[in-house]
Every structure is written in structure tokens, then in C-alpha cells.
Amino acid sequence: GGIQSKTTSVPENNMQKQPFIIGVAGGAASGKTTVCDMIIEQLHDQRVVLVNMDSFYHSLTPAELTRVHEYNFDHPDAFDNEKLLSTVEMLRNGKAVDIPKYDFRSYKNSVSRRVNPSDVIILEGILIFHDPRIRDLMNMKIFVDTDADVRLARRIRRDTGEKGRDIGMVLDQYSKFVKPAFDDFILPTKKYADIIIPRGGDNHVAIDLIVQHIRTKLGQHDLCKIYPNLYVIHSTFQI
Ligand code: ADP
Ligand code: C5P
Comparing C-alpha atoms, which of 143, 131, 133 is closest to residue 23? Predict the structure, then answer.
């Protein structure tokens, strides 16, 4: 009766394998991208996609552009959280999605890239744990914990180099916006992390453990492929 109809409502060829979603937060220049790249490198045999929160910065209006030094890029309102949420939901449901590329020089979104559904989705950004709706979609949450002086030193090097900015402006932005926002918005999200990685990309042990865990979780999904009944039993008991 009831159980029969429930089981037949899950066609075997339509067993949706939900991707494993990882969130990586931490201060600016803490080493988030480096950690993500190391995880991706080790998961080379899996389909992995990296979604950077930078892609969801609001584009600046002409008025804002004229006073760019007064704009707070470290505040939660600087990001289009609704778009980020819908993008993650699409990928989670196995749908391809276009993600814009953010240009730090023009302060605008430029051409989009097509992102295909994957087995592992890594969401990276300073405030990726801020919105509870996005946080709740994550299977694993990582916080990259790097000392403030190291972050500032790396930021100066990066922003005066690849972003072509003036050192005085980088320091002003840091004391006016970056440091206060880290204390007020980023650091308070550390409590949501499952794993806190000291020393970022230098911490090979932490990265190995994380990759092992992901592989274990992906392996559990694969069991459902080999033993489809496992899925049926599981879904019946969940109802
Ligand atoms: P985030 O994504 O948190 O902003 P990144 O991984 O992009 O941080 O690192 C910021 C800068 O610091 C980059 O220029 C990167 O090359 C450098 N960097 C990151 N990790 C290390 C490390 N362990 N040692 C030296 N430089 C690093
Ligand atoms: O890659 P990362 O996490 O370091 O990126 C976040 C940082 O980028 C923020 O600290 C923000 O101040 C900076 N940013 C910027 N200019 C922009 C957009 C973001 O300096 N146009």
C-alpha cells in the first residue's frame, strides 16, 4: 500500500545525487583561494566547481564609482545574496548556471561563465557564512584562520600588484572598512565552521583530512548507484 506507492515514486533512473557543498570563509587574503585550489587539485578525478562570492558583488553605479573610496566592499550589503542563493540552489539541483566574472579594476561584473552541475561545489568568500539560507545548504564549512598582520601584508602585495592600487589607498581602505568588517561580520561567522584551518594553504595535514572526508562522503553516494535499493529503503524510512 503506502510503502509501495512511495517507493515507485522514486524512479531508479531519476535518483538525484545531490552534490557535496563546501563553504570556505575567512578574512580577505587569508588563503581561501589557495586552500580551495589545493582541495580541487587533490580531487582531480571528481567533478568539482568553485564559486567565488566575488562574482556576486553588486556592480557600482556611476555615482558610486566617482566615490569608490567611500564604498564598503567588506559589508554584507555589498553582495547580491539573493542571486548567490538562487545560483547555489540551481547547482544543487543539478542545473547548469551562468556566473558573472567580477572585474576588480572596473568594479563591474563582466562576461559570465557557464558552470555545469558537479559532484562537489565549493563556495568561497569572506562572508559566505553570513546568510543562514546559504549556510544551511553546505555539507561542510571551513574557516581559514590567518593572523591579521599576515593578511594585511598579503593584501598590500596583491592589491598594489595585480589590482594596480596605490599603497596609501590600500591602507586607508584596510583601517576604514576591511578591519572593522572583519571584526563585526566575518569573525563572528567562525563559530559556524566545522573545521578551522590555521596557516591556510601551508596546512597540508588539514587539507589531506578534508579531502579524505569528501571522498568518504562521495563514496557513500556511489553506494546508492551500486545498490539502488538502499536509496529506496532510505527514502521510505524518511517519510
Ligand atoms: P583569499 O582567497 O583568502 O583572498 P588567497 O589564497 O588569494 O586568499 O591568498 C592571498 C594572497 O596571499 C595571494 O597573493 C596568495 O598568492 C598569497 N598566499 C596565500 N597563501 C599563501 C601562503 N601559504 N604563503 C605565501 N603566500 C600565500
Ligand atoms: O578574495 P578576497 O576574499 O580577498 O576578496 C575580498 C576583498 O576584496 C574584500 O576585503 C574587499 O575589500 C576587496 N574588494 C576590493 N575591491 C573591490 C571588491 C572587493 O578591494 N572592487
Answer: 143
**Residue nearest ligand 2's atom 11 by CA:** 73
The interface predicted TM-score of the complex, written ipTM, equals 0.98
| pLDDT less than 50: residues of the chain | 1-14, 230-239
To the nearest 10°, report the CA torsion of 59, 189, 152, 148. Answer: 170
pLDDT, one tens digit per residue, over 160-199 is 998 889 999 999 999 999 999 999 999 999 999 999 999 9
Dihedral of the CA atoms 152, 148, 182, 113 (nearest 10)? 50
Minimal-distance CA residue to ligand 2 atom 3:
28
Cβ atoms 21, 92 nearer than 8 A: yes
Is the CB of 200 inside a 6 Å radius of any atom of ligand 1?
yes
Q: Whose Cα sits closest to atom 12 in ligand 2?
A: 73
Top-tier CATH class for 2-53+120-238: alpha beta
Q: Is the CB of 33 under 6 A from ligand 1?
A: yes
> What separation in angstroms does the CA of 7 have from each of 222, 225, 233, 236?
20, 16, 8, 7
Q: Which bound ligand lies closest to the C-alpha atom of 72? A: 2
Dihedral sign for Cα atoms in the order 118, 120, 125, 131: positive
Q: Provide residues with CB under 6 Å of ligand 2.
A: 28-29, 32, 54, 57, 73-74, 104, 107, 126, 178
CB 9 within 8 A of CB 238: no
- The candidate with the shortest Cα–Cα distance to 49, out of 147, 129, 128, 119, is 119
Tell me the domain boundaries of the chain: 2-53+120-238
